[in-house]
Specification:
Keywords: Cytoplasm, NADP, Oxidoreductase, Queuosine biosynthesis. This is NADPH-dependent 7-cyano-7-deazaguanine reductase. With 150 residues, the protein is α+β, with helices and mostly antiparallel strands. It has 2 helices and 6 strands; from the N terminus they run ββββααββ. The strands form 2 sheets. A 4-stranded antiparallel beta sheet has the order 2-3-5-6, with helices on one face. Strands 1-4 form a two-stranded antiparallel ribbon. Strand 2 and strand 3 form a beta hairpin. The N and C termini lie far apart (43 Å).
């Protein structure tokens, strides 16, 4: 990760894989307060590593920034790079969370992967780095665990 090589404001290709994707970070202008930044990706896709069929999810990423913020265009490109990536739901969700933690060193991060059913079984995956900082408002993610009920 090179803080000076931002993709923002220039033509960027969709990365061929999550490993090849560049995630950029920018300085947090409000390091004096704790707040939650939320990213919602309602159209996340990856590929089942067994069948080769597409898998679909809504991802919710909440984090409490320290010194760094993730640059949103690079995050969009990173998440899009999973479109042709074969991995199980658990691997995709946790790998995204870990990569963001490595990049940002946030005070807290949680990710919810709300996966649509495949073979009749939805697999929702949740991961977080620790306890929510004290006195911080962290709203519910607001995604029903199973969306097939109506």
């Amino acid at each position: 990760m090179n803080d000076k090589m931002l993709q923002l404001g220039q033509q960027s290709e969709i990365p061929q894989s999550p490993e090849a994707a560049q995630l950029d970070r920018v300085p947090n202008p409000h390091t004096d307060v704790e707040y939650v930044a939320r990213f919602t990706c309602p159209e996340f896709t990856s590929i089942c590593p067994v069948t080769g069929q597409p898998d679909f999810a809504t991802l919710m990423i909440d984090y409490v920034p320290g010194q760094w913020l993730v640059e949103s265009k690079s995050l969009k490109l990173y998440l899009t790079s999973f479109r042709n990536h074969g991995a199980f739901h658990e691997d995709c969700t946790v790998a995204i969370g870990k990569r963001l933690v490595d990049l940002l060193e946030p005070k807290y991060l949680r990710i919810g992967g709300y996966w649509y059913p495949r073979g009749g079984i939805p697999i929702d995956v949740f991961w977080q780095t620790g306890e929510v900082p004290a006195n911080l408002w962290l709203p519910e993610q607001g995604v029903a665990p199973y969306r097939g009920r109506g």
